[in-house]
Amino acid sequence: MKDTELLAKQIRIHALKMTSQGGSSHIGSAFSMADIIAVLYGGAMKVDPLDPRAADRDRFLLSKGHAGAAVYAALAERGFFPVEKLSTHYQDGSDLSGHVSHKGIPGVEFSTGSLGHGLPVAAGMAKAARLKGEQHRVFALLSDGECDEGSNWEAILFAAHHQLNNLVCIIDYNKIQSLAPVAETLALEPFVDKWISFGWHVIEVDGHDHQQLKDSFLPHANSTNKPLCVLAHTTKGKGVSFMEDTVLWHYRTARDEEFNAALAELEKSA
């Protein structure tokens, strides 16, 4: 477990540096899901940096593409491309765009940014795998705020109808979206009941507890014929005290004293 916790720490440090150097935003969103990404790329998913297009690989789609810095950081730490490339993030001419892109980036399956697209594509990929008799799984990570998008609910219906138990939808449920709390923007509760009533198997976890995350991603964690929703309760900005649970750090870029203070906190963390 220490390996994935160390990976999560490195993801946060890289993401902080990348967004600060490039002047991009969404650091709170990247920190929110860093533990989930670390567990996925730390062993929960079947991926191989030496063969990123292997036919039997698990597929991962980051639907909340604005937090792509965390995925780039994980891919670099796993060896999909050199860590030094991360310093080009969001720079002129770089292929490491602010919203995650698959173009020329090994390990990224699909470009995202406009919200509400990741799960519909993932459901289609899971259905295609089923038709072809393939055994890999498809993971899609969504923000809670993007569950406002109607396209997601069409995909939720589709996946349950086709009994796609090779599909795992993870919700980064930090309860804050771009400009306000989720509950004040468009309330989702009773959220678990909605997924269950749509025909999904649901597991609720602490999205910063690596053991709970690992257990929920085990193939046998879903012994039903239903698609799986892992509802991960998280804290926006997790890891830096003055960024945690605030709307401000959805768009704000950490620079100068704020950057130094954030980096110091992350480097001291276990």
From TrEMBL:
Cofactor: thiamine diphosphate
Domain of life: Bacteria
Keywords: Thiamine pyrophosphate
Keyword Transferase on entry: no
The Transketolase N-terminal domain, residue ranges: 6-258
SUPFAM superfamilies in UniProt: Thiamin diphosphate-binding fold (THDP-binding)
Family membership noted in the UniProt record: Belongs to the transketolase family.
Protein name per UniProt: Ferredoxin fas2
Organism this protein belongs to: Lignipirellula cremea
Gene: fas2
